[in-house]
Write a structure and sequence with these properties.
6-stranded mixed sheet; 351 residues; 12 strands; Nucleotidyltransferase, domain 5; alpha/beta
Length: 351
């Protein structure tokens, strides 16, 4: 996605790539079964998605589990998972800049009048040896409870957020496979209608891949093939059989890699969540974008409109996961979802 922020920097955007204002009303296409879509009085809620690469804030006035009015939304790359794969611990600098961002977002949510602030931590915190210490320090700093979710719960919340925005596909031939490429893990959820039939969180994230397969200059084909083969081999051996052998009628990608590819494919100068939401990337388009990105140095990638600062070195390894996933399920089309874990957390909080 596209705010021009660097790890630990402010969220002020430049004229090169401005984030458009969020839609005033975000309305999922499906209504959660058995729940009323209306409240007599809106309640202002906030969610903070504390990811391994990015921290995301959402403040909204909720008028039902299926409808809300966005008050404030922001995100910042802090790369909490930097160096985690090698050391097994959260580094001092990544932890400090992430904690500062979460504390800032919590304060902004309270200033905005949020009645509840849900802070949800994912892969980096649950995997790190010092994750519990980080959570304790963060709770002291923010005065809020930090929930560390399992990979399975993360996948379920992501599915809820994605389907809340894009909707079910009752007439699709085959199941829906949703994947969320994160900094420390990638979640896969196979859904039949709105029901998850298989889910897994793989320790396959763009931060670790980038640290082991850096592409500071133009991408050398042999080195990219090695990266692709590693990712493809891991998917083939680690994904459960129901996902590997599924007849996938619709493949949906969410989070920064997928939304960045969509924004680039659309030629956006400013990130537009409405246009990105539901955008279809063909396999040919993904290959074209990979060739375009691969011809550039990391500095040149960083100068592209709507390539979020802090993502220039991550986008090629992230695209390798996209390509390997499309290959695995034989998909020629990828639907991109701007909605994901953050929105799933809000839906859970509102229910």
């Amino acid at each position: 996605m596209c705010p021009t922020t660097s790890a630990g920097s402010s969220s002020t955007t430049s004229g090169r790539c401005r984030r458009s204002k969020p839609p005033l009303h975000a309305t999922p296409r499906r209504k959660p079964a058995g729940r009323s879509s209306l409240r007599l009085t809106p309640v202002r809620l906030a969610t903070i998605d504390l990811g391994s690469n990015t921290v995301r804030l959402l403040v909204a006035d909720v008028v039902g589990a299926g409808r809300w009015h966005v008050v404030e939304a922001d995100q910042r790359v802090t790369r909490l998972g930097e160096g985690l794969a090698a050391s097994g611990r959260l580094g001092e600098a990544p932890a400090a800049r992430t904690a500062a961002t979460v504390a800032e977002y919590a304060a902004r949510a309270r200033r905005a009048g949020a009645e509840r602030v849900a802070i949800v931590a994912t892969s980096a915190v649950r995997e790190a040896a010092n994750g519990a210490d980080f959570v304790a320090a963060l709770e002291r700093a923010t005065g809020e409870t930090v929930t560390v979710v399992s990979g399975e719960r993360e996948a379920a919340l992501t599915l809820a957020g994605v389907l809340g925005g894009i909707g079910e596909a009752p007439h699709a031939e085959g199941d829906t496979l949703v994947f969320d490429i994160g900094g420390g893990s990638t979640e896969y959820v196979l859904a039949r209608g709105a029901t998850a039939v298989a889910a897994i969180s793989l320790r396959l994230g763009v931060v670790d891949l980038t640290e082991r397969h850096p592409f500071p200059g133009p991408v050398e084909p042999a080195r990219f093939r090695a990266l692709h083969e590693e990712v493809a081999s891991r998917l083939a051996s680690e994904l459960p059989a129901p996902i590997r052998t599924a007849r996938v009628g619709r493949l949906i990608g969410t989070a920064g890699t997928a939304t960045t590819l969509a924004a680039l494919d659309l030629g956006l100068r400013a990130y537009d969540a409405v246009r990105v939401q539901g955008h279809v990337l063909t396999r040919r388009a993904v290959d074209t974008l990979l060739a375009r990105l691969g011809a550039l140095t990391v500095g040149e990638r960083a100068a592209l409109p709507c390539l979020e600062a802090g993502r220039a070195d991550l986008i090629v390894p992230g695209t390798a996961i996209v390509v390997a996933t499309m290959d695995l399920v034989g998909a020629e089309r990828l639907v991109v979802s701007d909605w994901g874990l953050r929105e799933g957390i809000l839906m859970s909080l509102a229910s």
